Amino acid sequence: MRAQPLFAADSIGKSFGSRTILKAASVWGREGTISVLFGRNGCGKSTLLKIGAGQLRADHGVVQFAGRAYLRPRLCELASRGLFYLPDRDLLSRRLTLAEQIRAVEWRFGASRTAEVLERLEIGGLLDQTPLRLSGGERRRAEIAVAWIRAPRCLLADEPFAGIDPADAEVVAEAFRRMARQGCAIVITGHEVRQLLATADDIVWMSAGTTHGMGTPEQAVRHEQFRREYLGPVRLG
Hints:
By secondary structure, the chain is an alpha/beta fold. The chain has helices spanning 45-53, 75-80, 98-109, 114-120, 136-149, 166-181, 193-199, 217-221, 224-231; strands at 7-16, 19-29, 34-38, 60-65, 68-70, 83-86, 154-157, 185-189, 202-207, 210-215.
């Protein structure tokens, strides 16, 4: 029997004016695993993640985190209990160096893994730089470093592989795997199918405003409808 999710956004509905984005969508994250939420552009993946993080209010549904249910979750409250939300746009301050931002996280939360994180994400030589002077891949690695140093119980990452090159993507993927091995529940969205299938433990597919649990990547690629309507000819390996 599988463990209950540490995090879940359950039966979420959301409309913007007359346009319904989510009807009854769910996503979840279990301790020590990486869940990937797939779906076509505009289907509502980012909306669901924002609701799960408490950044956007749902029309209906419930968010559960660390044994507590929230009808109106707030990002600050979830963050105080160990949830970290990594948006699909810049997270870091543009004016402060990376070293200054890491020191702020260490001061606020304490840190025991900073040296390991800097080495694993290959950013030790970038500490005196501000985010504006970093490449897209360097900036993404720096953002994930800040999240990892924070030692979250759950990480929600919206399109973390978007716009970065394959070398950066592999460094990021290995960081996620190590975070999961340290017990973090990780939920990721994205369109980089091969990379995400190789990184994931659990697949969720969003279509027509709702979601479907596909199981492991191996199970997902054998699912005829998922393969036909979303994956196409992509294979593992």
